[in-house]
Amino acid sequence: MTTVLFLCVHNAGRSQMAMGFFQHLAGDRAVALSGGSEPAAEVNPAAVAAMQEVGIDISREFPKAWTDETVRAADVVVTMGCGDTCPVFPGKRYEDWALDDPAGQGVEAVRPIRDDIEQRVRRLLGELDVPVG
Questions:
Q1: Which residues have a Cβ under 8 Å from the Cβ of 21 and sit 6 or more positions away?
Q2: In the chain, how many domains are there?
Q3: CB-CB contact of 57 with 43 (8 Å)
Q4: Per the residue annotation, which of 17, 32, 77, 86 is the catalytic one?
Q5: Among 14, 19, 86, 103, which is most exposed with the fewest C-beta within 10 angstroms?
Q6: Using one digit for the tens of pLDDT, what is the confidence trace for 51-66?
Q7: Could you confirm whether 52 is annotated as catalytic?
Q8: What is the Cα–Cα distance from 31 to 14, expressed in whole angstroms?
Q9: Structure pTM?
Q10: Rounded to an integer, what distance in angstroms lies between the CA atom of residue 45 and that of residue 3?
């Protein structure tokens, strides 16, 4: 089963939204994980609210640090603004998604980021031949 790891600095916004979309769209046909280099205390409330608007609940998630084991377990690692702090392991497929950081933003500013992430997740699922359900 394909495993995708979404990484950003705080694991509070972009990576949490990406994981939420991936889990929602892929169901049990693939696995999504997320992590950060400097995890925040909580998931960004504006990201939670923006995801609730599209029927995806990420309110029970929490920011967590990535580990070497998590990265090794992933088939695809998607980085989002963590630069040199993101881990690089030879032989892994990496994608870097240049996305605005939703930290400190209201829901209005997070919506376009959310929508961009959804389209990128849908494209990634297509590339991985994971049916969207």
A1: 56, 117, 118, 121, 122
A2: 1
A3: no
A4: 86
A5: 103
A6: 999 999 999 999 999 9
A7: no
A8: 17
A9: 0.95
A10: 26
Question: Of the residues 4, 7, 8, 58, which is catalytic?
Answer: 8
Q: What is the CATH number of the domain that holds 52?
A: 3.40.50.2300
Of these residues, 12, 30, 82, 125, which one is catalytic? 82
Q: Is residue 131 a part of any domain in this protein?
A: no
Within a domain: 133: no
DSSP string of the chain, one letter each residue? --EEEEEESSSSSHHHHHHHHHHHHHGGGSEEEEEESS--SS--HHHHHHHHHTT---TT----B--HHHHHH-SEEEE-S-GGGS---TT-EEEE------TT--HHHHHHHHHHHHHHHHHHHHHTTPPP-
Is-catalytic flag, 86? yes
In a domain, 57, yes or no: yes
Catalytic residue status for 36? no
How far is the C-alpha of 23 from the C-alpha of 69, rounded, in Å? 20
